[in-house]
Specification:
180 residues; three-stranded parallel β-sheet; binds NADP nicotinamide-adenine-dinucleotide phosphate; single chain; alpha/beta
Length: 180
C-alpha cells in the first residue's frame, strides 16, 4: 500500500482492508513515500510524523495482516516504486494505490518493469475514475468513507476521518489546520 499518507485516514485503511480480503493477502505493508522537495510545504508533516501516524493507525484499526515499512522514508535520494518492489521481489506483490496516482503510472520511473514486478491495484473510493488507466492495472471499487488527505489538511475538525491515536498525535504535534 503506497502513498504519501499525509495523514493516513480511515479511507486508506478501509481501502486496504477491502483489497486484503478480496485477494486474501497474507500481509499488507503500508509504505509511506519519502517526500520530494517540490512537495515541501509548511502544512505537510515530516517523514517521521507520517511514519508514526501509519503505525498508530494500523494499531487502532486492528487488521492483523497490516504492517508498516520505513524503507522509502529511509532511502537516500529520490524514491522510486520500482526500487521498493525489487526489495520485496521474493513475494507475489499487489501494489495498492489510489486511482489518481495509478493514472500517472506511465510517467513513473521504469513503469514497464513495475508491471512485471507486481500487479498494480488502483482503488477508487467514489466509484468514478476520471482518468484512463493502463489496461494491466486492476481497478477495485471500495465503498469506503469519502475523504482525502488534502481535505483533512484544511479541516478544523477531523475526528471522524482518522483513528483515535492519529487524532491525538495530530493534536499533540499541532499538524495541519485542526482546532478541535
Ligand atoms: P498523491 O499525489 O499523494 O495522491 C494522489 C491521489 O491518490 C490522492 O487523491 C490520494 O488520496 C490518492 N491515494 C494515494 N495513495 C493512496 C492509497 N494508498 N489508497 C487510496 N488512495 C490513495 O500520490 P502519492 O502518495 O504521491 O503516490 C502514491 C504512490 O505512488 C506512492 O507509493 C508513490 O511512491 C507512488 N508513485 C511512484 C512514482 C515513481 O516511482 N516514479 C511516481 C508517483 C507515485 P489521499 O490524498 O487521500 O491519499
Amino acid at each position: 500500500m503506497g502513498g504519501t499518507f499525509d495523514p493516513i485516514h480511515l479511507g486508506h485503511l478501509q481501502c486496504a482492508d477491502v483489497v486484503q480480503k478480496k485477494f486474501n493477502l497474507e500481509k499488507v505493508l503500508f509504505i509511506p513515500a519519502g517526500i520530494p522537495n517540490f512537495k515541501q510545504d509548511k502544512k505537510l508533516a515530516s517523514s517521521k510524523n507520517r511514519l508514526e501516524m501509519c503505525k498508530l493507525a494500523i494499531a487502532d484499526f486492528g487488521n492483523p495482516t497490516f504492517d508498516v515499512s520505513d524503507t522509502e522514508i529511509n532511502r537516500k535520494g529520490v524514491t522510486y516504486t520500482v526500487d521498493t518492489l525489487k526489495e520485496f521481489s521474493e513475494y507475489d506483490i499487489y501494489f495498492i494505490t489510489g486511482t489518481d496516482s495509478a493514472a500517472t503510472l506511465e510517467q513513473w520511473h521504469n513503469y514497464e518493469e513495475i508491471l512485471k514486478l507486481c500487479t498494480v491495484v488502483a482503488v477508487t473510493r467514489k466509484g468514478d475514475v476520471k482518468h484512463k488507466l493502463n489496461p494491466k492495472i486492476l481497478l477495485i471499487k471500495a465503498d469506503v468513507i469519502e475523504v482525502s488527505s488534502t481535505q483533512i489538511r484544511s479541516l478544523s475538525n477531523i475526528k471522524n476521518y482518522v483513528t483515535p491515536s492519529v487524532y491525538e498525535y495530530i493534536k499533540e504535534h499541532e499538524l495541519y489546520s485542526i482546532i478541535t
